[in-house]
Design a protein that fits this description.
With 263 residues, the protein is an alpha+beta fold. The chain is built from two helices and 22 strands. The strands form six sheets. Strands 11, 12, 13, 17, 18, 19, 20 and 21 form an eight-stranded antiparallel beta sheet that branches. Strands 4-10-9-6-7 form a five-stranded mixed beta sheet, covered by helices on one side.
Length: 263
């Protein structure tokens, strides 16, 4: 009798361990995996797995963000070989936070659930900025918030980014040098960044000949971020015309000096 009781206890423990790793109800268990560990907005995500037996019901799929908010709901039926696979697109209006997301799959009963996680890097969006009929594209990525608009002010050489935070987050914005730049004596210098009129620290994460990228943290109470440079269109065009005018004037003056005047 003791051997039988010990054997029963062993079976119960085994089922408990399997249930925590995969999810199990009766004789049917389920597994889940994603085809990548990290996704960005617009990436195709393949969710797949297996079931141990057919229950003639669809598999429910739920994806939750780091705060536990549901961002995706779907269903898929297992194949005859007891496997399943479906492709979804990462990102969208509900995917507002970067961080660790969780995929839950349920088969037949809420107690028969398995899960896996992946990292979501956030949403990159191109925002067109029009100044005097010309369009310049700023690319941004924001976590825990939305960008409501980007307003250029040429008189102060600044861009004001209006935001709607859902918590403390990060705005990463790529700024074309043809739109706004910060230079001192021809060399790159730091932008000034303000949040609701107060100067704040930030990081420049990358820089090349065409653009510079800034990473600016914000909190849940901020409503606007202002980026201030030292030069901005159409100021660039005025400088270019001035330089061209000087370059054309020099040869004329030189010829007048070297060429004797005839009496």
């Amino acid at each position: 009798m003791l051997k039988v009781e010990l054997a029963c206890i062993g079976i119960v423990l085994t089922l408990f361990l399997v249930g925590t790793a995969y999810g199990q109800t009766g004789l049917s268990s389920i597994t889940v995996a994603s085809n990548q560990q990290t996704y960005s907005n617009g990436d195709q995500m393949v969710i797949s797995g297996t079931v141990s037996s057919q229950l003639n019901v669809p598999i429910s799929i739920v994806v939750k963000d780091p705060s536990g908010v549901i961002v995706l709901i779907g269903q898929v039926a297992p194949n005859r070989n007891n496997s399943y696979s479906t492709t979804v697109t990462a990102g969208g209006d509900l995917w507002t936070a970067a961080g660790t997301y969780t995929i839950y799959v349920t088969y037949g009963s809420k107690d028969n659930t398995a899960s896996t996680t992946f990292a979501y890097t956030g949403t990159k969006i191109i925002f067109p900025i029009t100044i005097e009929g010309s369009v310049y594209n700023a690319t941004y990525e924001i976590t825990n918030g939305k960008v409501l608009g980007i307003i250029p002010t040429t008189s102060t050489r600044s861009l004001t980014v209006r935001i709607q935070p859902s918590g403390s987050g990060l705005l990463t914005i790529n700024l074309p040098r043809s739109l706004i730049d910060a230079k001192t004596e021809g060399q790159d210098s730091n932008y000034a960044v303000q949040e609701d009129g107060v100067s704040v620290p930030f990081n420049q994460t990358s820089s090349d000949t065409n653009s510079r990228t800034l990473a600016i943290p914000f909190n849940s109470t901020n409503s606007q971020i202002t980026i201030i440079g030292t030069q901005m269109v159409p100021e660039f065009e005025t400088i270019a015309v001035l330089v061209l005018g000087i370059s054309m004037t020099v040869p004329i003056v030189y010829l007048r000096i070297k060429t004797p005047l005839k009496s």
